[in-house]
Amino acid sequence: MTSAEILQLVITGLTVGSIYALVGLGFNLIFNATDVINFAQGEFVVLGGILTAVAVGTAGLPLWLAAIMAIALVAALGALIDFAAISRVRRGSVMTLAMITLGLAVIVKTSLLLWVGPDPLYFDPFTPGPPLRIFGAVLQLQAIWVIGVGVLVMIALKFFFSHARIGREMLACAIDREAAQLMGINVGATVRLSFILSGALGALAGVLITPLTNATYDQGFTLALKGFAACALGGFGRASSAILGGFALGLIEAASVAVLPSGLKDSVALSILILALMIRPSGLLGGREERRHTQAM
Amino acid sequence: MRQTHVLLALVLAWLVAPLLIQTGGTFNLFIFAFINLILVLGLSLLFGYAGQISLGQAGFYGIGAYMAAILTVRSGLQPVLGLIAAIVVPAVLGYVIGRPVLRLRGYYLAMVTAALGLILHTVFVEWEAVTGGYSGITGIPALAIGPLTARSPVTMYYLSGALGFLVMLMALRLVDTAYGRAMRTMRESEMAARSCGIPTARLKAEVFALSAGLSGLAGALYAQYVGFVSPESFTIDTSVNLLLALAIGGVGSLWGAAFGAFLLTFMPEWFHELQNAYGLVLGALVVVMLTLEPRGLWGILLRLRDARGKREAKTA
Prior knowledge:
The structure holds two protein chains of two kinds. In chain A, 71% of the residues lie in helices and 2% in strands. By secondary structure, chain A is an all-alpha fold.
């Protein structure tokens, strides 16, 4: 393998990895506030991409306006999900909540199929122009956007959870809901906010990656699984580990495509996830201990 | 015991129902309902009773179906041997995989089992020499036990129904034994289970193997009835639907699982005019049901019974 090919592999891996990391960051947000894994997170991403593609393609809006609208709409959907379902659940465990999000994922997916059909949707990259050439390797301009925004979001989230008052309140809600309430934190509002932010973040991921990957109604679950793998590889509950886990996963995937048939790509990445979790059940960097997830009902 | 009475009544209804069923389509539905019953009961034991979630049941379902197909079509074995292999192979694989994987809990387990399901699906697609890739395997012979061949829908109705009732009975018995109590203890608290001397690692793997074996049995019945297998029957959607069916019926109850399995089979038929929009009904049902009553349909029945009990107590 020449050095150009290896460089290409690294670039591809980092691009794909930052996609997974962006999806994973959305998981982290809701998990950090509620201890719930939102199985509809992948659908948030796809919905963001498809809404933007429709607004640009059919309605002829400028990309920036379409993107803002898509992000706002998916954020509103996040709020609606919490308002209509999650916040109404009085009994039952976090697994009940997780299964509700699984049902919601089915609803979003079906709606998308009915609305835009099974064909992939697409819109042009943010900045037009030929891809950059670095020592013989090709770098798509959109990939720079994905990696750049991914890193920015990660830094913002890190600051949010460590310094901003509201971010720390979110963490408190997940660690001990009752104690948080006793300290005067409005738990309901905090959880609602986490769903809104997570919807916005998911949609942002969708807007960024659609020019590279296209958006199809049924991509959600695979994306969610990869995003989860990114989080789990790095360790749950920390923004930086989702990014590192995403990069690791992307690089592994890119390397596997170089030596194995491309149909095995997903399987290789997922096998790595399983192996990594066997060796380090709380992630490679160590994450928050999971607590209440054992109970089924 | 009342449970036995209900079961007896159901068996009677099942025996005489063919007198009333006129069309082959209805037989078809009942056969698929029994296959789904075996699948959902396996998941109910694993998730509802032992507390171990799985989003990879379709993988074992698929292995069962492919075992039954490959051993009869490619190796020319008796269909009944294919059926037995379809139970044993997933069960053994389930134990071997389950031992290390079930150290994970909650979401980690959900995602890892989903990953396992996806990997197995990839195997069905990519291992063309054995599985036939996307085009699958055709011409799978019908199940035959001795002189009895389940070629017609009626014989298959009785055969799959008998197996369905057998599994239901076994499951009802199992959860009432010390083993079943150990499962439930482990669901409530692994720590407590371990301090009572329950070997949780082994118990988890055994229940996982049991549910994998049941999924394999269902897979063989499917393959030998339809006569054809292809990867698209064993996707992550299949696993998700099984979990959602269990959630609708009631996670902590075997009767709830049975409700769920029948709804999973019959609802698409009731709403067939909706075509692609059916997913909206399924998703909405799950969301509404779990928001109102986390124990599902079974929980609603329990609540009705409690309410009636209270009213009777008042009037008395």
